[in-house]
Amino acid sequence: MTPQAALLAVFVVGAVAFAFVWTRALRRLPPPRELRPGGYDVAVGAVTNFFDTLGIGSYATTTALVRLGARLGPKVQSKPVSDRVLPGTLNVGHCLPSFVQAILAVTFIEVDALTLVLMVAAAVAGAWFGAGVVARLPLRAARVGLGCALLVAAGLLTARQQHWFPAGGEALGLRGVPLLVAVLVNGVLGALMTLGFGLYAPCMILVGFLGMNLKAAFPIMMSSCALLMPVGSLRFFQTADELRVPAYAPRAAMGLTVGGIPAVLVAALLVRSLPLDAVRWLVVVVVTLTAVTMLRAARR
């Protein structure tokens, strides 16, 4: 079995296992169990995962749209998501769509197997430790963390748009010190992702700095997210059971999943061209405004 085939098998088994574990976690929720997602939750999942598949990322955009729905009131989003459980909701809700992304990316884009496996393993390890801390954060700390993560994400998107970082090279893999740097940094990104700090933009910048082909970033970052999200989600499930307090919003997470999976397939298999530069600038503006409102709420 080739490394690519082995990794695809891991993705399929991981997706099935996560669906099983999540189903059991949902059954342990105290009644009333409001699990049917609203239309707005499904729409957010579709929009964010569509652009996530094209390399824009989903965490910052989801945070912005979820908070927008809360501000617009119950007619738009019937059950607003608390800022405290937003990181857990992002991890749980985007997990299964990320598995679909990873399967497609590893199937169609070439990358060095050793580089891919080591960077993904580092991200998973980082997520395990990060989620254990994030799931216990109080509301104000969660708002500060999310606000800072969004500001950094907006800065990285701006830097990428302005071409302030290297455009990458032709390498499909790394060895020696560059590989060690890539593994260590991806581990930190995995930990930060449990707080709502998206991995896509910094991971793409990282591989560009190290001289890799930017196309190779897609299987790396998508595989990292696909495997770190269920690991982080398990920690959120455990925290909810141990502390008897919500660690994520089940209804909103379900909406992200239901809307996200078909959107990934449409973006990957049907879309050939979009004005992504304009979309990225729009994301920068929206994410910056969301970060400011998040930090102002934390200050209050």
Strand content: under 5%
Provide the domain count: 1
How large is the radius of gyration? 18 Å
Largest sheet: none
User: What's the SSE pattern?
Assistant: HHHHHHHHHHHH
Number of helices: 12
Cα-to-Cα separation, first versus last residue: 56 Å
- Mean of residue pLDDT? 80
From the spread of the alpha carbons, the general shape counts as: globular
Class from helix and strand fractions: mainly alpha
DSSP summary, beta strand count: 0
Poorly predicted segments: none
Helix content: over 70%
Describe this structure in words.
The chain has 300 residues and is mainly alpha-helical. The chain has 12 helices and no strands. Helix 8 (176-193) packs antiparallel against helix 9 (200-209). The longest helix is centred in the C-terminal third of the chain and has 27 residues, at 217-243.
Helices and strands, with pairings:
Blueprint lengths: L2 H25 L11 H15 L5 H14 L13 H8 L1 H14 L4 H22 L4 H23 L14 H18 L6 H10 L7 H27 L6 H20 L6 H24 L1
Helix pairs in contact: 1-5, 1-10, 2-3, 2-11, 3-12, 4-11, 5-10, 5-11, 6-8, 6-10, 7-12, 8-9, 9-10
What's this, in brief?
The protein has 300 residues and is mainly alpha-helical. Helices cover 73% and strands 0% of the residues.
